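Box 3.1. Reading complex inputs
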Amino acid sequence: MRHLAFAAGIFLAGQALAETPVLKVYTYDSFVSDWGPGPVIEKRFEEVCDCDLQFVGAGDGAALLARLKLEGKRTDADVVLGLDTSLTAQAAETGLFAPHGKTPKVDVPTPYEEAGAWSDPLFLPYDYGYLAFVYDKTKLSEAPKTFEELAASDVKIVIQDPRSSTPGLGLLLWVKAQYGDQAEAMWGTLSDNIVTVTPGWSEAYGLFLEGEADMVLSYTTSPAYHRIAEKDDSKAAAVFEQGNYMQIEVAGKLAGTDQPELADRFLDFMLSDAFQSAIPELNWMYPAVTPKDGLPSGFDAPLISDHAVLIEPAKVPAMRAEALSEWQTALSR
Amino acid sequence: MANRAFKIKPAEGISAAFVAAFVLVPLAAVIWRAGTLGGFSAADWAALRFTVGQALLSASLSVILAVPVAKALARRNFRGRRMLITLLGAPFILPVIVAVLGILAVFGRSGLVNTALDALGLPEISIYGLQGVVLAHVFFNLPLATRMILQGWQAIPGERFRLAASLGMRPRQVSRVLEWPMLRAVVPGAWMVIFVLCLSSFAVALTLGGGPRATTLELGIYQAFRYDFDLGRAAMLAVVQLGLAGGAALVALWVSVPSGFGAGLDRVVRRYEAETVLARVGDGLAIFAAAVFLLIPLGLVILNGIRGLSVMPSQVWEALGVSLLLALCATALTMVLALALARRGEAVGYLGLAISPMVIGTGLFLLVNPVISPMALAFPVTVAVNAVMALPFAVRVIGPEMRALEADWGRLGAVLNIRGWAWLRWVVLLRLRKSLSFAAGLSAALAMGDLGVVALFASPDWATLPLQMYRLMGAYQMQAAAGAGLLLLMSSLFLFWIFDRGGRGDVDV
Amino acid sequence: MLTFECVLIRQEAFELVADFSITPGARVAVIGPSGAGKSTLINAIAGFVEPVAGRILWKDRDIGANRPGDRPIALIFQDNNLFPHLSVAQNVGLGIDPGLKLSQAQRARVSWALERVGMADMEDRKPGSLSGGQQSRAALARVLVQDKPLILLDEPFAALGPALKVEMLDLLTEVADETGAAVLMVSHDPTDAARFAQSAILVAEGRAEAPVPVQELLENPPDALRAYLGD
């Protein structure tokens, strides 16, 4: 396709290109689905960019990165949107991304950053959230406030597999960050609370809603969905005393893009109100830059930064391998 | 005859090459890109043991339980028998997550069974673990096993049973003389097919398995592709899986050949030795138990789905159209391939069972991407992969019938010089109408459920019904997703029914 | 003229040798004990069995490489002569064009053949609704339209009653006379042979003997045949 466009470019050199430029953004599937923010954002950006914005959905964040690696330098993508901080080190290592060259002011309470700052040279955040165990207040009156309390209780949870799911991987890193060498032991004491481990978030959440578990690994923003979209205030997320693991979703520009300026404009747009205001009620995450109208009512305020647990991206790859084998050992017993 | 038997016909060659191109070539592409095959770790050994172990158990139980059900269905006629047989096929074509939720509504922590146990003050039972994996696999595959074995029963001519009756044989003697030899011929084949199916289980094993103990090779492949991007490891695991599945499939062909599971389900042979009260009660119980086991989870899926239909967004209907079109195209392709391969290429047809869709998708992507945007090929690739994945079932249905046709009528055809298109038009299509339409119905239903979802080839412009269902789930809309699941179930069954019915209009013998 | 030139057929432990000719238009019975290889001989001519040595010639031309459908033969089997899913007329029509693309004239020829065998009003019936005799008539109608110089029959009327069988043999004789074809018919019943054939081939003890006049063979049977005939 790109060769064609290139050939067309040469052929038409000297005369104004009537064709509108195309910006290809690879993202995860739920972002582009009819119920995600994709369609709204596409419309809003195309109103101002005089271009054709094309979202290409590819599984989840991990699948997105895998696809990019498969395509390598030949990729058609101009921007990749939807990696999170547990993947950015791997993504950076591919050498496919170009520095964004921006010093944005964001409202992401990243534990390892100065307040409001963002120092990653390749990736820019667009939203964030916290992993949490979500439960039904009418069925579980007192939710555990620590992993220890959870392990000691007979509360049943359903979690996702860190080998096939992003939140599953987040939980793995959460426990590892908090318990270090004791992580395997913690998993051991948690194992009798775990009803089952599902391949992805949807299966786990479905099982929870069917009453298979008292709590499900999801996000602190999940209750907001039920409150706002379903007028159902029965769900709550357990905020842990030692903090909840943070997931920051980011986007980056490809070094090989044939639309570098358009890509830059998209990244700027991403942090503008038109993009950010679509996030809370369509992606059900916290916007990276709080919209001028604030968060919709029904959204709990984000946790403060010292309440967030997050492993620095660079440390993730090494830690993941170790944590994964501990997890497997502890839960296989 | 000599000429007919040994020359490979162009149609056979092209079809075999096509299937290989969609199965082996992608695998080769992955290996080539990886440059090396990964090693086998201790965790992989554990996964291999679990994969094979659960497949052994699932296949054995499915077959053992299917024998009394098939026996009862073979010798009892009752109102709704046909309908029941069709409905019993439904679990096989359900999307995994829908079926799992149905099973959990019965056997889960707050399912019917545990609610009842709780009311009686009894301790609750847990479905999570090996038992749950096996239970779900039996739920999926019991209908398949029942149909294959039922076909074996009905292949025993009625005269044999009349002869047995005239000799005053008792039920046990009839079993030994007539039924036991049939079972020995049919059961190994059915067992092997289900074994191979269970080998590549991933979502069921993980969701109901309760944790990393229940890790299958397929999960390893998934992880290697998606999180580790270790193509060598993915390719190695795929080769192991291909070896296991391919080996089992070849053994199945070699050990015995069940005579298909297509035609002749209408006929109930009168069984004189079975007209005792005890036999009647036994058969009644077997049919009742199977119906309860298979239909209650299905009923709960339907109930849950009905509530979801009203909140289902309009995009689901568009997706239904896409899926119907896709299913029809895939069915057409499956039938062309199956007709070409049914007589001697059954082993080739089985390849689709033996390899992970993830490997097919990635390999094709590697091959196609340098030449043309994969998105441009989204539809044809999805059609082709679905066709290749449904092919094993189609050749399983058509193969034995085709060979029987050849045996009975091949010489007459040869003498009259009926060859090629004329043979297809005037003999095969008319003579095998029943099993062809059964195979087409099965393929259509399977393609509707989108066996071969290839995420890498997903088009931004359209989505299949199963994909939209998963997207709804991903957007918290579980109720609407249940509605989409019901729509999927109904449209799959409808397609199956339409095709299957089309094949039984004209009675000619 | 059909010629067996030092033909040797071998199937596992079974062997059959044949070395003789049959004159055009001859009506020949193939008789002999069961299991001796009568059907094998027919199958070799039809091309279903390949000789390991020797040649089978038609008009001095080797037909060994020809497909069954390209040999100068029409064949009636013991059973499965009519496709059950096709009408009687279609079954006969296959004898003219295997693709059943029939011209007006060819269709008229099918009707004529069916009328000739006494099945004029049964064109649209399916074989399943016909009696055994009617099925044989339909098969003979097809032989009629095939118009081949050699008709092979492998115990064709074995399942019919005596009177019906006689009727069929007479009809067969008429068909053969009409087309001028040579006929080779396997039969286990010597009276069939006596009624229909001029000469007979004895197949026994691994040999297919050259045809001799039927009368001669039955009145003065060799040992193998005597044991079979049971006197």
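In summary: Helices of chain C lie at 38-46, 88-93, 104-116, 132-146, 162-179, 190-196, 214-219, 223-229.
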